[in-house]
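Handout, page 2. Input:
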Amino acid sequence: MAKQIIEILLPVIGIGLMIYYEICDTACAALKGTFLGIDLKPVGMVFMGVLFLIALPLAVPRWPQMVKSLRTMMLSFALGGEIILVHFQVAHAVFCPYCLAFASLILILFLIRVREMHLHLVAICFASGVLAFLLFFRGSIIPQYALVF
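Output:
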């Protein structure tokens, strides 16, 4: 029961983080990123929205194996992608606390269910996430003085 509550609350927190990040004009305003040309903030909100929906008690009893596999694929892929996103921040020495908090939420959600996950599926989706973000992530850092105008 505690896992289900956490799996419902953390995606809501993740959506809140992305909304706040969208309106933030301080530390994170310099970081921009896209995946397949789509801004990462709405991608993150949709991602957390899907995790929220599949965590609801209505979804799990009807399609337990599908929900379990979808959760495994989503979290493994996202964790692989977060490796690239965190590396981008480290490489440029520009850190976004909201982005790092979002990555932490994904890690926590992953760790909650890792013992129940099919390890081959985890490995394939994690590697796919790393590869996809290596190929399709575009990040930029806008100098702070450029944000004044």
